[in-house]
Amino acid sequence: MAGITLDAGHGKKSEKKAGRGAMIILFLFATPFAAGGTIVAYLAVSMVVGWWEARSWVEVRARIISADLNVSHGDDSTTYSVAAEYTYEWEGRTYTSQRVSTSFGSDNVGSFHQDKYAELQRYAGTSRLFRCFVDPDNPSEAMLYRELRWGMLGFMGVFAGAFGLVGYGLMFVAVYGGRLVKETDRLKEARPKEPWLWDADWVDGRITAGSRGAMIGAIIFATLWNTVSAPLLFLVPREVADGNLVALLGALFPLIGFGLAWWAVYATLQWRKFGNSEFEMYANPGVLGGWLQGRIHTNIRKRPDGPFRLTLSCLRKETRGSGKNRSTTERTLWQETARVPPGALLAGPNGVGVPVRFGIPYKAGPQSDPEASDPVEWRLEVSADLPGIDYGTHFTVPVFRTPDSDRAVAVEALEPDYAAAAAPPPELSALGIIRKPTAAGGVQYVFRRARAKKAALMLTAFTIVWCGFIWLMLGLDAPIFFPIIFGLFALLMVAGLSEMCLKQTRVEVANGRLAFNSRYLGPGRTRFFGPAEIAAVKVAKGMQANTRLYYRVVLHTRDDQEHRLAAMIGDKGTARRIVADLQEALGVAGGAETAPGTLAEEPAT
């Protein structure tokens, strides 16, 4: 037993050292970026100061002794530097100088060095006089060109901004992260069997929203993106004027930058209007096979006319690849939504309170695990339509399996306690769905084209950018293999867009028989299924756009075939209502289990 205790303690110490070591490595990694940004920022400021001081210098005649253009060839670029030696007289005394301009060193920003060399070369070694600018307070200081190089200043600003933000940002993360590691270690030692108390944000069950962090992240990302892409606004028109139409692709990056800038502005306006909200948990943690319940304290003084929309999602952050090919995506494993009407809102100390009560099935998803290689995060999102800036924020909440978890709990038993007063679900027509009774006493659903407009717009934008890269590869004469592979993926995207925008489906139940028809532009094909053929009709997860899930209504037949009756339903409750309606029209008894002849919701996995 003593040996086991020693090994466990050694393991904890190893984890502590690993966490702190990671923060030290991150700090050291950030140092060159911060140093590079600082040095370039210092040079940029020095160039501006030199230009400002030179504005009052006195112009005198100078004789150019020599002029040279120094050319340096690197691995992927060539830089230039103009050099000159000249003499001038001040108050009867002759001085010699080699300073050419306000900038220092060599570069390839524009054609400044080549142009100045060509001009000075016409004067070098001749009797023709040029001019220079002399500091009257220190006559030994002079320069030939005192104008400010705006292009060079812009380049240095981009470099200093990008490297400085990355470097100092990572240093801040390292220092702040080191403190979080120490605090987490302390909490782990205090409550080794209660991981929901290891996060300082969860300890007291009062969780602050991520609005401020989202605003800061939006500002930093938009600033970095626009800092890096801004020079393209000047380079692209020049390249297009020279006949390089492929350069038009470069205009995509500033356009994206405008969108990111608007995102940052909107997040800032939201923060200024609403500040940070707080989620007060009634029980910590939320329970798999139980409940997540509490109230959200907002700073909204007046009750809105419409409902608050709540979404609880289980997200897994999956990392693929390594090095430059490393990428992280969020996959939604489970999601539930609720609509809280104005009548169900609560009074709070600073504004309205929003009640939260989500039932979570035992197998809804993995428990919170921020330390895993592919961490799982439970996210509670809340939004409401208000005059002017809309309200919207999110919370990262603890959800775990505890002694209170119930494996047998059914989804139907987890209805919110405000369900009776819940806001009416969205109208079917607003979702692009038409319901009408049939002459035979049945029911018909028509799922119209282009119902998921936001998802279609996102996929359209992504497809345009993707096709732009294919055009770029063709313009740069890349190996044909790459355009072909990219083109195959583009065809899949176009096929998906065609289904989202052009496909229309009709489902009809009458006289105990189900019929459905899918068509694009033509009449399509109608298929019929009798009661003896139907095994189940279920709600299933469909595609994911950002973190939002869309749902499908699927028909399972007794020969183990699956037929998609409808797709791209953006509201889970609506999908359940449609299944229940079809169930009633077929005259089949409901039930939580999927048995032959019944209609039920597909269990979450």
Shape: elongated
| CATH architecture title of the domain at 286-424 | Sandwich
Described by strand count, sense and barrel closure, the largest sheet is:
5 strands, antiparallel
Model regions low in confidence, pLDDT < 50 over at least 5 residues: 1-15, 410-423, 589-605
**Chain-averaged pLDDT:** 80
Q: What share of the residues lie within helices? A: 25-40%
Structural Rg: 33 Å
CATH uppermost class of the domain at 286-424: Mainly Beta
Helical segment count = 9
Total DSSP E strands: 24
For this structure, the CATH topology of the domain at 286-424 is Immunoglobulin-like
Q: What is the structural class?
A: alpha+beta
**How are the strands of the largest sheet arranged?**
3-2-1-4-5
CA(first)-CA(last) distance: 39 Å
What share of residues are in beta strands? 25-35%
Textual characterization of the structure:
- By secondary structure, this protein is of the alpha+beta class.
- Among the domains are: 56-145, no CATH class; 211-275; 286-424, Immunoglobulin-like, CATH 2.60.40; 503-586, PH-domain like (Roll).
- It is 36% helix and 29% strand.
- The protein has 9 helices and 24 strands.
- It has helices at 2-54, 112-121, 150-190, 211-229, 232-241, 252-274, 453-475, 481-502, 572-586, and strands spanning 58-73, 78-90, 93-97, 130-134, 142-143, 206-208, 278-281, 286-287, 290-297, 308-320, 327-340, 346-347, 352-360, 376-384, 391-397, 399-400, 433-437, 443-447, 504-510, 513-519, 525-529, 534-545, 548-557, 562-569.
- The chain has a 5-stranded antiparallel β-sheet with strand order 3-2-1-4-5. A 5-stranded antiparallel β-sheet has the order 6-7-9-13-12, with no helix packed on it. It has a 5-stranded antiparallel β-sheet with strand order 17-18-19-20-21, with helices on one face.
- Strand 22 and strand 23 (548-557) form a beta hairpin.
- Helix 3 (150-190) packs antiparallel against helix 4 and helix 4 (211-229) packs antiparallel against helix 6 (252-274).
- The two termini are 39 Å apart.
